[in-house]
């Protein structure tokens, strides 16, 4: 039985992620199994690993703020400090979760994020993981298409 059934969801809040897309994908590969296992939605099959196939912005129009303070910090940056400018938008990651019994399931992660490019971090105010139904053949066809386009 798959760790996350189609239509089954897990929500979490308050993650600080690295600013590089590749590093965010690697961080999600570690975070996703932990969230699924901690949510108690596993039916005797714990998630052991996840692989992120795709991560991209899905926001229609990112909002840019010239000054976005962090908790317990000044509203404007101190003289000589880096800008506190932030981009707020939505991101989507798609990947595969492998269960300890060898089963797999495809997941989609929706993230509302605040990126601080000059400060080197993202803050994911919320992450929603949703199990989806995809056959192995459909997954292979999608990967072949991506390989052909690369």
Description:
This protein has 150 residues and is an alpha+beta fold. The protein has helices at residues 21-38, 136-149; strands spanning 9-18, 47-57, 63-65, 86-99, 104-116, 121-132. Strand 5 and strand 6 form a beta hairpin. It is globular, with a radius of gyration of 17 Å. It starts with 8 loop residues before the first strand and ends with a helix. The mean pLDDT is 78.
Name a few traits of the molecule.
globular; six-stranded antiparallel beta sheet; 150 residues; alpha+beta
Mean pLDDT: 78
C-alpha geometry: globular
How much of the sequence is in beta strands? 35-45%
Structure annotation, total helices: 2
List segments where confidence is low: pLDDT < 50 over at least 5 consecutive residues. Answer: none
Q: Can you count the beta strands?
A: 6
Helix content: 10-25%
Give the N-to-C terminal Cα separation.
34 Å
Largest beta-sheet details = 6 strands, antiparallel
Helix vs. strand class: alpha+beta
Q: Please write the string of helix (H) and strand (E) elements.
A: EHEEEEEH
Radius of gyration: 17 Å
């Amino acid at each position: 039985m798959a760790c996350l059934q189609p239509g089954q969801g897990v929500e979490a809040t308050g993650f600080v992620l690295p600013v590089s897309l590749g590093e965010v994908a690697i961080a999600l590969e570690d975070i996703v199994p932990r969230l699924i296992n901690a949510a108690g939605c596993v039916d005797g099959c714990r998630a052991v690993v996840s692989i992120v196939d795709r991560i991209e912005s899905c926001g229609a129009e990112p909002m840019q703020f010239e000054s976005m303070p962090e908790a317990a910090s000044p509203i404007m940056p101190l003289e000589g400090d880096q800008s506190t400018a932030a981009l707020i938008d939505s991101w989507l990651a798609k990947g595969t979760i492998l269960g300890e019994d060898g089963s797999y399931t495809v997941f989609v992660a929706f993230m509302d994020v605040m990126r601080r490019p000059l400060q080197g971090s993202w803050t994911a105010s919320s992450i929603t993981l949703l199990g989806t139904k995809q056959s192995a053949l459909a997954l292979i066809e999608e990967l072949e298409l991506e390989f052909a386009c690369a």
